[in-house]
């Protein structure tokens, strides 16, 4: 087994010709969020990856093996829930609210300007639909945020092959979102707001001057 203990985020500093010749390893998020795992590259080599704890491996990152060879990581497509706003019954701001509530539940989220992605969860899907959002199950790469202070945070560029740029193979068209008698958009939203931050009552005590 070939040991790998070095990672170059997005192959920074490597000549394009070296990246083009590099072997590849297609890995889903369940594997890439670990710092120690085994994989097989496009050359059929068994790799043992031992990275610093807390390291997140992103699509487009380059692993450097102990023999000096390079392996470019491709974010494998996987089943995710793609969440978009319903323009007929809501607005784009609904995505902000959804990200807030999902964040309160510590759910890994991939944030995009016009949609969110999370791993499949039927309970969360039902909650999101009750918030005027459209939820479809698709097969795409998944690159959730790593946290603002995470060493493996999601701050690198998006110009990698097989990563989370959007040149995905066409997926099956999602089922049409029909707003009829069975539409979930007329639910009471009281429960969705239970987690919103309530203003704190601040009491100001005025002290009377002491009489001497």
Write a structural description:
- The chain folds into 2 domains: 73 residues, Sandwich (HSP40/DNAj peptide-binding domain), CATH 2.60.260; 98 residues, UreE, C-terminal domain (Alpha-Beta Plaits).
- A hairpin with a 4-residue loop joins strand 8 and strand 9.
- The protein has 212 residues and is an alpha+beta fold.
- Helices cover 14% and strands 25% of the residues.
- The strands form 2 sheets. It has a 6-stranded mixed sheet.
- About 27% of the residues have low confidence.
- The N and C termini lie far apart (86 Å).
- The longest helix is centred in the middle third of the chain and has 12 residues.
- Pfam families: UreE_C, UreE_N.
Structure in a nutshell:
The protein has 212 residues and is an alpha+beta fold. It is built from four helices and ten strands, in the order E-H-E-H-E-E-E-E-E-H-E-E-H-E. Strand 3 and strand 4 form a beta hairpin.
Number of strands: 10
Helix proportion range: 10-25%
As a whole number of angstroms, the C-alpha radius of gyration is 23 Å
CATH class identity of the largest domain: Alpha Beta
Give the number of helices. 4
Spatial strand sequence of the major β-sheet: 2-6-5-1-4-3
What's the N-to-C terminus distance? Answer: 86 Å
Keywords: Chaperone, Cytoplasm, Nickel
Main location: cytoplasm
Domain UreE urease accessory N-terminal: 7-71
Biased composition (Basic and acidic residues): 158-168
